[in-house]
């Protein structure tokens, strides 16, 4: 059975979540208090509804309990975001994802039982900053305060060397999870795999180890 999602708040973030879920074949109810925003989603979402989600009865009547996951993407109106999340929890919605505007908002959301809290602007800012500092770092995913996954492009320094020659794990404490080569992806590459200029390495490790690896092995 198709998973059923409800997206509350159809700004840039909520709207993009809604479109991506539909593209992945999910059923999505798109909800916003602003009729013009809802109209934009009439032909996109499975259902598009004008509703103020700070009203408990409105959410009850929408049968919100029956959705597999509800995404609260109300941006600037933090009060409406908190109240909506609180009501969803009280109505028994188990899986709630909420977009937080700032750290205080996140603290409150944690206390009232939001299962997943996302900070799209903050996270994208961090990812872009890593790319700006080193143009060879294509992407950055923070796993915890200390660990992350990065995608970096192979230049001259590593060209033609095997993973065993580079000895990345022993020297830098990082592991190469996969190598992207054109449209191929080599998952868990063998130690004998020879790396070529233009390959993209997907590497996991502690931030301080990855910094050392980047400084020594990635071209300027
Ligand atoms: P983004 O950063 O995602 O672009 P945005 O700045 O567009 O966010 P906002 O406009 O603050 O975000 O809020 C997102 C949507 O949430 C808006 O379309 C707004 O109408 C809707 N919204 C705000 N309050 C409520 C509410 N109580 N019930 C339903 N929708 C709401």
Q: Helix coverage percent of residues?
A: 25-40%
Mean pLDDT: 93
Instruction: Give the low-pLDDT segments.
Output: none
The secondary-structure class comes to alpha/beta
Shape designation: elongated
SSE string: EHEHEHEHEHEHEEHHEEEH
Strand count, sense and barrel status of the largest sheet are: 6 strands, parallel
CATH superfamily annotation of the largest domain? NAD(P)-binding Rossmann-like Domain
Number of strands: 11
How is the CATH topology of the largest domain named?
Rossmann fold
Order of strands in the sheet with most strands: 3-2-1-4-5-6
* The top level CATH class name of the largest domain: Alpha Beta
**Strand percentage:** 25-35%
Domain module count: 2
Number of helices: 9
């Amino acid at each position: 059975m198709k998973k059923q999602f409800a997206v509350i708040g159809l700004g840039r973030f909520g709207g993009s979540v809604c479109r991506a879920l539909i593209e992945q074949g999910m059923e999505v109810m798109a909800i916003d208090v602003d009729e013009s925003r809802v109209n934009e989603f009439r032909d996109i979402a499975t259902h598009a509804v004008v509703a103020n989600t700070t009203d408990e009865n409105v959410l009850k009547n929408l049968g919100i309990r029956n959705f597999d996951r509800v995404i609260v993407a109300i941006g600037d109106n933090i009060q409406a975001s908190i109240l909506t999340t609180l009501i969803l929890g009280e109505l028994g919605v188990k899986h709630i994802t909420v977009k937080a505007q700032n750290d205080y908002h996140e603290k409150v959301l944690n206390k009232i039982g939001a299962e997943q809290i996302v900070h799209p602007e903050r996270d994208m800012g961090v990812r872009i900053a890593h790319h700006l500092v080193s143009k060879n770092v294509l992407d950055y995913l923070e796993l915890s305060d200390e660990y992350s996954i990065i995608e970096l492009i192979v230049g001259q320094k590593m060209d033609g060397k095997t993973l065993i020659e580079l000895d990345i794990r022993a020297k830098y404490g990082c592991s190469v999870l996969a190598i992207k080569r054109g449209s191929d992806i080599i998952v868990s590459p063998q130690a004998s795999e020879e790396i070529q200029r233009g390959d993209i390495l997907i590497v996991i490790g502690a931030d301080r180890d990855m910094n050392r690896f980047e400084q020594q092995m990635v071209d300027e």
